[in-house]
Amino acid sequence: MIRAHVTMAMLVLMAGFIAFDAVAADPLNPYAAPPMLALGSGMAAAGAHCAAPPPK
User: Fold this and answer.
1) Whole-structure pTM over 0.85, yes or no?
2) Model confidence over 16-36: pLDDT tens digits?
3) HSE on the CB side for 44, CA within 13 Å?
């Protein structure tokens, strides 16, 4: 196989995966999503658990 065949196969597989994910996933609800920036709102951070210090 040459590189073009491998590249096309990967692009087809990625497009198939994205299409499957788009069909199988629930639609996004923008009203239930957390705010992108919650500076000064008093809300606790929910992301970056891998960077958080370990619990005591």
Assistant:
1) no
2) 999 999 999 888 888 877 677
3) 3
Cβ-proximal residues to 35 (8 Å cutoff; 6+ apart), any chain: 41, 43
Coil/strand/helix, residue 45 = coil
Residues in the chain: 56
Cα(1)–Cα(18) distance, integer angstroms: 25
Report how many helices (DSSP H) and strands (DSSP E) the chain contains, helices first: 1, 0
Q: How many CA atoms lie within 13 A of 6 on its CB side?
A: 3
Residue 38's contacts (CB-CB under 8 Å, 6 or more residues apart) are: 45
Separation CA 29–CA 43 (nearest Å): 19
